[in-house]
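Two entries, shown back to back:
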Amino acid sequence: MLTRWGAAKVDESGVEAVVEGTPNARRLYEKCGFRTTIEEMRLDVSDEFADRRKPELVFLQRQVGVQGRP
């Protein structure tokens, strides 16, 4: 519901929206009219953090007035 609300605000404002999310959330965003622009973001971190788990992220964009899919 929050994603739909945000998509409606995008339309009201007349601006496009960009979000980053996990691969698991991708379908939710696509249902609200977002389209994937970056499939996989790889993070380049310093040696200090190299051994830590890095998040998997996708970036999605939504144009004004784009309808989602059911």
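entry 2 starts here
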Amino acid sequence: MSGITVPILKFGVSYATSTQSIPSLLLLPSAGAGSATFKSHQASTTRHLNGLSLAATSTYLLAYALSPGRRHPYLLWTCLAVGIGASTDVFLSRRSSDAKKRDPSPAGKVEEEDYEDVNGSVRVNGEEVRKSMEGFKLRQAVRAGLSGFAFLLGVVGMWGDGRPVVQ
């Protein structure tokens, strides 16, 4: 049963993050507060989703390894869908950082983020915070879709295993 529960939990966390948490964070009044809250939320969400991905993958691989006689290929396909969903952060983050490298700031322009206030606190660029929140929101939406697909693969596979064998 945990093989089905974990993808649905991952779907729920990713869906709630992309549709409720990030839009709420975008409404915070200051970029500094939004940035600090977003970094904390992002670290917590990523940590929990990586744990759920590890649990799902290990459950499916263990079920595949311990299955008697006939191997169940849906377990590997579900495991693959979970793994791809877990790697969305890596691939989509790399793509956005590559886009930043290709679009450098004009020469001689000093970024606003490079300035420090007299108090020693660093100013935060609101547009950069918004862009990173929207990128995280997109990654979580993709992850939610892939987790939902993994859940459907698991359900269909278990349903197929339960059918009577016709001879």
